[in-house]
Amino acid sequence: MSSEMLDLFLSSFGETLMMVGISGILGALLGVPLGIALHLTGRDGVLPHPLFNRVAGLIVNAVRSTPFIILLVAVIPFTRFFVGTSIGTAAAIVPLTIASAPFIARLVETALREVERGLIEAAQAMGATTWQIVYKVLVPEAFAGIVAGLTITFVSLVGYSAMAGAIGGGGLGDLGIRYGYQRFLPEVMLLVVVILIVFVQLVQTLGDILVRRLSHR
């Protein structure tokens, strides 16, 4: 492999890391509170609010059910508003964040549902506020499940970031399309696939290790 191609791989991998890392963090900042809100406002939640729960759930389901390649195009006006362009690594972060936040929200909601109802009732009996129930009971008890959900999200974002490369989002996906497909260099495409597989395996392994440690604390 030439030094020029090696530099391309390194820079493309760096772009992929940036897209996955930033969109994953932003998605978590939006999705975790949304997941908590969905759980609290559910029928059996601490703060039942059917209207909010139904509307928020409808929006979450709508975004989750939209194929990512369509979402990429649909949110171009938002992307241009936030970053000034619809092409490039920074632009790809916007749809990646929009795609990840509802995904995380549902996973967080599912993890919170696994918390024993008796623990919540005991906290309420002792006069705990809603906020205290959230950060002293719900989140600590469901933390391992939340981390597992975030791991799944980051793995999915790796694939999404590669898809974003198909429309000029940068990263390894863009490298594979431009050189592996358009310039008929199958070895480049193969190497891109191998790197993505290894990257996904590392993310999943680290996430599994963290979940196991949290589950046996």
List keywords for this structure.
217 residues, mainly alpha, MetI-like fold, membrane, Methionine ABC transporter permease protein
Blueprint of the fold:
Elements lengths: L2 H38 L9 H16 L2 H7 L1 H8 L5 H25 L3 H9 L4 H35 L6 H11 L4 H30 L2
Keywords: Cell membrane, Membrane, Transmembrane, Transmembrane helix, Transport
Family: Belongs to the binding-protein-dependent transport system permease family. CysTW subfamily.
Subcellular location: Cell membrane
In short:
The chain is 82% helix and 0% strand. It is mostly helical and 217 residues long.
Describe it.
The chain is mainly α and 217 residues long. The protein has one domain (3-115, 144-215): MetI-like (MetI-like fold, Orthogonal Bundle), CATH 1.10.3720.10. The protein is 82% helix and 0% strand. It contains nine helices and no strands. The model has no long low-confidence stretch (mean pLDDT 90).
Q: Rounded to an integer, what's the Rg over CA atoms? A: 20 Å
Give helix % range. over 70%
Look at the helices and sheets and give the structural class: mainly alpha
Mean pLDDT: 90
